[in-house]
Structure formats: C-alpha cells, structure tokens
Amino acid sequence: SLNKNDAEVYFYLAISQLRLKQINKAELNLNKAFKIGTPDSDILYNIGLGYAFIKEYNKSIEYYKKCIKLNPRHEEALFTLSDMYLNHDYKTKAAEIFLKIYDLDNKKFNEYLAKAGLLYEKDNKKETAYKLFNKFIKNGYKNPVINIHLARIEYTKKKYTEVIDLLSVIPQQEISNKNDMLIFAESFFKTGDMENSIPWLKKIITNNNKHIIALDMLAISYEKIENIKDASVIYEQLIDITTGSVQADYSYKLATLYEKLDRIIDASKQYTRNINKFKSDIRNYQNLIKIYLKAENWGAARKILEKIIILPPVELEYRKTLAEVCLKQ
C-alpha cells in the first residue's frame, strides 16, 4: 500500500512535470498524491511556482494561499504572492499580504507597512491608508514619502497643524512637488503663521509666476505683516493675470494699498481706471470722492459724484454732497 512518503514522491513528480509543461501528467500525479497524503507548506509553495511557470496564475495563487494558510510565516510564499498580485494590479490584495509580511517582523519589515498604506491609497481606500500611515509615524519609523502622503490627507481634513508637524520634520528638499509646497504654505497661512508661509509661496511663484492661489495668499500674507509695499507689487501682478469680478476686487485692493502708502496720485489713477473698467463697482467712486474732497479738488469730485448718483442703489447723501460741491465751485 502507498504511504505518506509515496505521496511526497508524487507531489515532486507533479511539480517537475509542471516545469516541463506536461500538464495532464502533472495533474494526474497531483490527484494521486492528494489521495494518499497531505503536502507541507513547501510543497504547496512549489506547486504554486509550477503553475506560475506555465502561466496558470489563478491556480498558482490558490496554492500560494494554501501554503500561507498552513504556514502564515512562509516568507517566500508571502513575497511571491504579493508580487503576483501587484503584477495583476490587485492593489488591495497585495496590501493585505504586505501587512502579513510586516507582521512577520515589525522592525525588519516596517517599509511594508508603508507600502501597504500607499497601495490602499492608490486603490482609493483613503481611510485605511490614513490609519496605516499614522501607525507608521507613531511607531517611530522614518520615511519622508509617508509624511508627505499623510500630510495630504490631513490637509483634506483641514488639520493644518498636523500638516505642519508632518512636513517640518523631513528634509525640506523632499518637498519638491508644487501641490505639496502649496499644502505646506497654506497650512502656515491658515494657522496665521505668515512668516513661514511667505518663503514657500515665493518658491511656488518662482516656478510659476501666474499661480493665482499662491499670489493671492502671498499678497494677503504681506498685508498681515504690514509689508504693504510688497503686497501692492503682488496685487499689480494679480491684476495682469485675472479677469472679471476677481480682477475688479484686486484692482480695488491695489488702489486702497496705494492710499496706505501715501501714493495718492497712483491711488487716484487706479480708482479712475477701475471706474472706467468696472462701472458698477461703487467702492471705487466712494474712495475717489473722499480723496478729491480731502484735497478740495471740487471739479474732480463733482465729475465722480455726477457718475455715482446715477448708479443703483445710491444713498441720498451723495446727492447732498454733490449739491454742496456745486456751491463750492
């Protein structure tokens, strides 16, 4: 009668036949072997390799899985199966195997915790990725890529302090992607740290001087730190690259900054340009009238007042002011 040792012979014979592409013979011998004995994890792994050799990938995967079920610490099977899943673009399945590899030896295989997180993220399983990235960081493992990926998720959650903490501890040259620079800059900006926001915004603008979002934040940052001169320069750039109501707002803002800088002639010219271009924006008329009244330039004030009183809605006070100006002329 046949015994366990005979089963092993049949198993290895079948494995050799798979390698020789003698598939029918191999499967006959596998059937015989399974009837008289139970394979160990190495045999199961080798059957899997045999099927992979003849490109029977589904059968190959089945045997790797059987091997791992029998021996969850079978390193070769885990690595081979994860590779196979990756080659077939089964991201989540590969990630699950990466976590099993990590469990073999946390310290030695900590990169597999990171790789699993990145695969879940690619497969749009953001919350699972988020948990794994956090675990990676909390365990004290180091990988700037993970800091960056976790910072991106924290940013979507509007957790700006966390973004700053994650990106401040990695070499700054690692933050080379324009969007990551913007995330970092905006996180400083949102937490009111303009001094740290400005250098990153300037870096972005050096690479792209038409980056409206970065220019807008930079202008506001300069204003917040009372650097009105530099803020006005940025608003001048913004006017050149915007249109419509956005351009109208920047144009008005620029004129108000000229006033703050005591550049009254420039402010007057800018308000006049704004009135000609954005006829319904009442703010420009109001400020220009104030400039002319202060300078006792009644003729100029009268011209603007005559324009403002035909704009809806206009307060009665402008009709009254116009009457007073006419009397002074």
Measured on Cα atoms, how large is the radius of gyration? 35 Å
Count of alpha and pi helical runs: 19
The total of beta strands comes to 0
Query: Largest sheet at a glance?
Result: none
Percentage of residues in helical conformation:
over 70%
Features:
329 residues, mainly alpha
Task: Summarize the structure in words.
This protein has 329 residues and is mainly α. The chain is built from 19 helices and no strands. Helix 5 packs antiparallel against helix 6 and helix 17 packs antiparallel against helix 18 (298-308). It is rod-shaped.
Q: How would you sum up this structure in a few lines?
A:
Helix content is 77%, strand content 0%.
Itemize the secondary structure elements and their pairings:
Blueprint: H1 4-19, H2 23-36, H3 41-53, H4 57-70, H5 75-87, H6 91-104, H7 110-122, H8 126-138, H9 144-156, H10 160-168, H11 178-190, H12 194-207, H13 212-224, H14 228-241, H15 244-260, H16 264-277, H17 282-294, H18 298-308, H19 316-328
Helix pairs in contact: 1-2, 1-3, 3-4, 4-5, 5-6, 6-7, 7-8, 8-9, 9-10, 10-11, 11-12, 12-13, 13-14, 14-15, 15-16, 16-17, 17-18, 18-19
